[in-house]
């Protein structure tokens, strides 16, 4: 009778794999234990088969507790949230005492099915119902008169299951070892070299240095400097920004390039980075730099991988990656300095780019056509809409003007001020002050005088503007006005020094 149970066990396992497309999660030939899974809609249907004779229900309960522990310990091996698990016990006889299912705490939505000789047909029908199979497995479990022939059949089915399992594991290895991370390492080196170079010629925290060497700067892009959409991906603002992005590039880039290969990885990286820069151009008027958009594109590529290989994705990186993406999004929302538009543009761009190039050995013409259309449409809308908007004054513009003033680049200061179309708002007084200084240094005193008058009208507490205006009134022979603005500047400076003793006076 043992031969009959063994034949039924291995035939059932083989039937579920070959005819019902279950995947082998675990296979133990000697213990005659098989774990199978079938995923659908992010949920897993799990079957655990065991060929063993249990005489008492307590032994079954102990085995179920063992299964619960195994499920908790190895839940990452399943491709999604476990919807139900069927525990199938193949045996000649049921337990001597009656098994009471409610008395056992089962993990997830579990079913205990005894496939004893007198319950095989009902058990298979229950199995079909819980897993929504079209029909129950049709297995002739009765042995004919030639047991040796069926012994060889058992060995054949065991061998076939073992071969299927080996092929599944080999396929997994091939997916993650398709390419080598050569481009990832090259990008790391390029970013480090550029960072070192910028530090040697200026400072990576200097707005003027960043803009001159290719940061995302909206006025420059509107004037035709489209290359900034790419060059900004290689600039970083300070050491911490560089280290965070390079660490992310190392880990994510290595994974994506190994999965997609170097050519596809390069396409994904740059297409994601460009769409991220375009989104930043449209939504964010500040100066921006960094590889974050392209790096979020690598997240997008892994999410596309999850879509095409859900079982393999959840078995390897799974929820860890999804949680990491969510943490980065929440971090971006809560930290004001983070360019969320660039991150989200990169994430979407990476997903579309991955769909465009597709995974190795996979190709779907419809997916590619849709991704090309969506990417092109998104890029066109972002760039066209961003280019058509007015250039508004930002804090970055003021900092840029200040740095140009410190470097005595007055003509450049005037070029910047002329490119700004809307200067009203929070920073208008400082904008007028810096422009007046550039006018003074370039011999345009009348224009400087008009700007300073406007500046003190907008911000009467602007001590530096009062001081410079007093000098111009003195040059014009208006001693009364000169004295008034001089006294006003000294009064404001005195108030500021009382609040901040280390503050220098205007000069």
UniProtKB/TrEMBL annotation:
Residues 224-355 form the Peptidase S54 rhomboid domain. Keywords: Hydrolase, Membrane, Protease, Transmembrane, Transmembrane helix. GO terms for molecular function: peptidase activity. This is Rhomboid protease GluP. Belongs to the peptidase S54 family. Residues 482-507 are annotated as: Disordered. One of its GO terms (biological process) is proteolysis. It is found in: Membrane. It comes from the Bacteria. The chain crosses the membrane at residues 182-198, 233-253, 265-283, 289-307, 319-338, 366-384. It is a multi-pass membrane protein.
């Amino acid at each position: 009778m043992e031969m009959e149970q063994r034949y039924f066990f291995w035939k059932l396992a083989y039937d579920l794999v070959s005819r019902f497309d279950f995947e082998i999660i675990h296979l133990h030939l000697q213990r005659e234990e098989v774990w199978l899974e079938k995923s659908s809609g992010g949920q897993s249907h799990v079957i655990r088969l065991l060929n063993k004779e249990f005489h008492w229900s307590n032994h079954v309960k102990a085995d179920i507790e063992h299964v619960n522990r195994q499920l908790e310990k190895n839940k990452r091996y399943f491709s999604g949230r476990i919807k139900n698990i069927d525990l199938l016990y193949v045996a000649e006889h049921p337990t001597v005492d009656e098994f009471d299912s409610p008395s056992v705490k089962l993990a997830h939505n579990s079913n205990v099915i005894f496939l004893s000789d007198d319950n095989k047909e009902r058990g298979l029908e229950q199995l079909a119902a819980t897993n929504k199979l079209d029909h129950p497995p049709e297995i002739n479990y009765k042995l004919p008169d030639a047991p040796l022939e069926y012994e060889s059949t058992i060995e054949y089915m065991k061998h076939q299951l073992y071969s299927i399992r080996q092929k599944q594991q080999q396929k997994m290895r091939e997916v993650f070892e398709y390419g080598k991370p050569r481009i990832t390492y090259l990008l790391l080196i390029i970013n480090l070299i550029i960072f070192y170079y910028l530090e040697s010629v200026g400072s990576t925290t200097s707005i003027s240095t960043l803009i001159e060497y290719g940061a995302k700067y909206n006025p420059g892009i509107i004037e035709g400097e489209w290359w900034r959409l790419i060059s900004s991906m290689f600039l970083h603002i300070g050491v911490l920004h560089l280290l965070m992005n390079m660490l992310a590039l190392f880990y994510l880039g290595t994974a994506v390039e190994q999965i997609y290969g170097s050519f596809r990885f390069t396409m994904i990286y740059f297409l994601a980075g460009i769409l991220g820069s375009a989104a930043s151009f449209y939504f964010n008027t500040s100066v921006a730099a960094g590889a974050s958009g392209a790096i979020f594109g690598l997240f997008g590529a892994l999410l596309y991988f999850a879509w095409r290989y859900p079982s393999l994705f959840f078995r390897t990186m799974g929820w860890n990656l999804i949680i990491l993406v969510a943490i980065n999004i929440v971090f971006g929302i809560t930290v004001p300095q983070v360019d969320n538009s660039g991150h989200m543009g990169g994430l979407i761009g990476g997903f579309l780019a991955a769909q465009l190039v597709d995974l190795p050995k996979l190709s779907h013409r419809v997916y590619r056509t849709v991704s090309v259309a969506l990417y092109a449409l998104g890029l066109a809308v972002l760039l066209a809409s961003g280019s058509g908007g007015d250039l508004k004054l930002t804090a970055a513009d003021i900092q840029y003007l200040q740095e140009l003033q410190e470097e005595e680049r007055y003509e450049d200061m005037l070029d910047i001020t002329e490119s700004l179309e809307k200067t009203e708002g929070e920073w208008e007084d400082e904008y007028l002050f810096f422009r007046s200084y550039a006018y003074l240094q370039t011999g345009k005193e009348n224009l400087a005088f008009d700007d300073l008058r406007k500046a003190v009208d907008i911000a009467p507490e602007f001590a530096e503007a009062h001081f410079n205006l007093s000098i111009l009134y003195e040059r014009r022979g208006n001693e009364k006005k000169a004295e008034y603005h001089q006294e006003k500047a000294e009064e404001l400076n005195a108030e500021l020094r009382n609040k901040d003793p280390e503050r220098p006076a205007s000069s």
